[in-house]
User: Fold these one by one.
Assistant:
Number 1:
Amino acid sequence: MSTIKVPKDREVPFGAVTPAPVTSQELFITSNWRIVRPVLDREKCALCFQCVMSCPDSCWSFNEEKEEVEWNWRYCKGCQICINECAAEALSAVPELDFPDGVVRLEKPF
Amino acid sequence: MAKVTEITVWTRGVVMDKEARDIANGFGKGAKMEGKFIQAFDNYEDLPDRVLVTTRKYVRISDEEIEMKYVYTNDHPDVVVVVEPTIVKGINVLRGMPEGGLLIINTNRPIDYMLQFIPNRDRLGAVATVDADSISGIRTVDFSGSEGGVDASGLGAGISAPILGAMSKVTGMVEKDSLAKVVSDVAAMERGYNEVTIQKFRKPRASYFWGG
């Protein structure tokens, strides 16, 4: 069995679309869909990972070094599923306009 | 060709889609009753059927027949209406606006607080805010029937009525009495007309006269 020799300048990544696996796509930032943002009270958090499992966009993840869940502000759409699912009631919905930053500003909607 | 005033309405998909459509259609209808020529249409390129996505609706008003055809976006909006205030944080709503344009926001926050989210606020001629959420009390009015194909809930039932009243007072393009024949919630429209707050900026070269 022989493999085809592809010149170095003609190589494309597998799938030809994106360098996989990646955890986030730079082309599809959805932070400006958000009206409210989930704010975590770390003292109440019991690390039950309900937010990690229930988030449709995988915006909650576990940071093993800090031993706490992290929120990805670039892709959270503010659907509030995590706030409803949180068993320890550590998450609360705060209006996005209370914060000066935390939203990627786009020229146009996509 | 006479001056065509372009109005762009920014809103969120699905949850506040009908409100913005009522603002576009209602303002156009009111202007048409006063003998003006109008074009009003929904978004063309925004894919609005996603919850909370930012979408646009458009109105064009002119004293003569509008010869602009086949272009479905307002590239240089004179008036920008923001139905949900968080949009100013994530979108450059003033893109293409000429010097001295008008921005109307539905919010209960102070005008100075909202202006900090708009980096290109220098080109604004005036900013107006109206607290439509508390005036009407109804934030979302669903399309009745098949996605607005058959709409029995009436034009201007939710937060669109106070915003229409505020637009009437600040732009001065449509009389309040004409809008009263169009919208279903006339009391909320009158309250929006009376309770709008406006802040004007000095623009020596601009040709606009925003009232209020």
Note: Residues 5-200 of chain B form a domain with the Pyruvate-ferredoxin Oxidoreductase; domain 3 fold (CATH 3.40.920.10).
Number 2:
Amino acid sequence: MEFLQGTLEVLILRSLQAEPNHAYGIGQFLEQQSGNEFVVDNGSLYPALQRLLQRRWLTAQWKMSPNARRARYYRLTPLGRKQLVEESSKWQRFVVAMSRVLSPEG
Amino acid sequence: MRQWWTRFRAWMKGRPGIAEDLAEEMRSNLEIETESNIERGMSSEQARAAARRHFGNSTLVAERARDAWGFPSLESFLNDIRYGFRAMRRAPAFSVVVILTFALGVGVNTAIFSVVHAVLLKPLPYPDAERLVRFREANAKTSFSVSWGNFKYWREGNHTFEEMAAYQFTDRTLTGRGEPEVTRGLMVTAPYFALLGMRPVLGRLFDQADDRPGTPATIVLNHRFWASQLGGDPHIVGVILTLNGAPYEVTGVAAPLWEPWRVDYYLPLGRAGGNTVNRGQHGSISALGRLKRGVALAAARSDLDAIMRHLAEVDPGPENEHRSSGVFFAEYSTGDMRGTLLVLMGSAVLILLIACANVASLLLARNTARAGELAVRKAIGAGRLRLVRQLLTENVVIAAVGGAAGVAFAYWGLRLLIGAAPTDIPRLAGTTVDLPVLLFAGGITLAAGLLAGLAPVMVAGKIDLTTALKEGARMAGGSKPRQALRNLLVIAEVALTFVLAFGSGLLLRSLIAAQRSSPGFDPQRVLAFSLQLPSKAYGSPEAISGFYTRLLTDLRRLPGVVDANSVSCPPGAGDCGDWFYSIPGRPVPAQNEVPIALFDSADAGYFRMMRIPIRQGREFNESDGAAGPKVAIVNETLARAWWPNESAVGHQIKVGGPYQEGGLLEVVGVAGDVRQFGLDSQPSADICRPSSQMNDSNRTILIRAAGDPARLMTAVRSRVLALDRNLPLQQFGALEESLGAGLARRRFSTLLLTLFAGLAVMLAAIGIYGLLSYWVTSRESEIALRLALGASPSTILRWTSFHALRLALVGVAFGVAGGWAAARTLEDLVFGIPPRNPATMIAAALAVMAIALAATVVPAWRAARVDAARRLHYT
């Protein structure tokens, strides 16, 4: 399933809510959490990460991964956290509204 | 905003950092994925391959991620510019032709625009110059000077002006500093200086205190006059100058400032005229004012009109019907060049359009040749929009190079232009290629580049991939819409060229007509000079007539002189003064409809000497003395207006009309019309009276020589100085030369427009040649086939020429329609023929057709020589 316009960014923010992660980890997280419904295309993921960095919702840092490999870890900034709260509530309302319309009456 | 800033900073710091980070990040993530694949039990090769597959096109990912940090459109734009230069180098001959064409179009436009800018558009160098206006009195028919009385009411009673000044010219003889010299002064009221923002460099300018009756006579010098005539004397303040025998104390020298007139000094007008109370007493005063902010010219006019209406009630008189008439000072001071310059600017734009059509056709041909390249670009994934943008950018790049060359060309051409221009065009000398001109050049270059690129690009956008890739250029070029577009371009070029050829034809014929037009008198071998007898030395009528009689007697005795006579206004010299008149016995005209005629005076022998024919009655003679009955000779225009079917002789004329004072004159003769306002003017009503009854102190002496009049000059000058050594000779020279000089502007505009038409014809010829060559190339197979089927080369020749002829004919048809419309804008410049002159139109059409046909000769000949066997063999 393709991502709807603007959804990838909020999903990235959500994936970093618990802990920092690298790009591959973020992709894995999104695919698993969506029950493999979402396919994360690197051609979208990397530019999206760059955009979030620009907006200062994320910071990036080179760190050692658990299996001792150097990787670039992304972490939510306070601004990003605020954004996540706003965006999630917006999407939740959107989803509720969508299903109200789409589901049969009763 | 902030995001743009971070992007910009990142962009400025350069991509390397970001790019390296990104590359390393991608590599590390690929490793992580490979490792997790191995953990899931794959072999290390399998794991690596699977990770790669899953990762996708890493180049594309990197590029798109990088783009987030940069300005992708800017970068692809810069890329396109690089492409543009590369494409230019790849086809040098093509590029040179296109660049030269653009250079020509942009150059001509830039040069003309810089003149238009300097003469018409640039604000005058005064504070709030756009609010400066010039006002005079007017009736329903014409405008004339404002009287001092009315000016005072205007200045004090208006609600629409910030400030108002009066000014009036005065010619005075300066003596006591070497040779006597006639100088031109401007009498102004004190606010004049503030209105123009004029400041002193020495001493002070006069103020209200110096500008009232009874104050000592003061004078402010113009900077140029002070520097050239008075040697830039730093101690000039306080010096006494003698003008017409009266002393004036220099109070200051004004800083240099451009004015629409050339004056030597400024005198206080209020001091000389401040005592006048009669509203009807006119000098030749004009009012200069600065409107209040936000006040329209019309509002100011009705404000002053209201004052005039009120005055008509409380102080009735001959002025009752007078109102005000005003123009913006900028418009007034640029005067009658506006029409000519706008016509030239329009013609320059036509040249640019022709250049664009030329370039468009060249590009069309070239892009067809490049169809293969374009198709490949499209096949490897360039979007249509991207392709269009790239082609347009390429065109703009080449246009920019051409435009730069054009500016250089304009810079150089401008010198020639100014050199060839008549010197009396205001502000022309200050023409430069400055910032606004450069902006204009940039603007039209961009517009021309886009315009010329538009047609070919529209076609390129529609490239049919498979055809183009398979068949190559040749077939892609022959498609129907392209051919139609090309034909359209030829038609447009021919039409535009026709309009220019027609316009220049009209001006050329007008110039010839003006040069051939009879001035109404014979100016050959006539020497002329003007004298002003100062009233101090020549106070009485006897003194004046005594002087002139003695001078003329002396001059007539000089060897080589056929005759000599004096007039108050030399023939062809323009308006020396007009006044109201009426015909007793005819219905009394309303106050604002009183007719006006030129009034002048001449000696008895004047008409015979100048070979002005006397149509009715007689010329002046000895009986028209000071004591005799007051008589006049009118010109044919006036006689025809009042006595079309009878002789004017014996009728009476009332000087001043029914509402102004003035005596009665008896018409004793009717003289042929003289073109008083120049060779290319129409005659206007004229009333001439004998010198003996007028005794003008200012006259022009006309001398008919037996041989070269220039050889008489020394003798004539010495005769004058022998009588009065304080008397300067003004405008001393051959009459024929000053008449011819009156056509200088006409010659200039005709020269330029003819030059433009020549350029247009040249461009159009190149364009038509190029298009037809291309047409022949793209049809070689067809031609070969026809030849193989038995057509003779001459049939092919006819077929090709006919194609060109048809296009040219359609172009001329459109051109005739355009010329018909354009003729109206030329109306003011055309003389002696109607502006919609069919003969000129036919001549222009034939000329353009001939050029079009000539341009087809080579391609048609090539078509006829197509080697059928070889051509068919190859395809």
Note: Residues 472-478 of chain B have pLDDT under 50 and may be disordered.
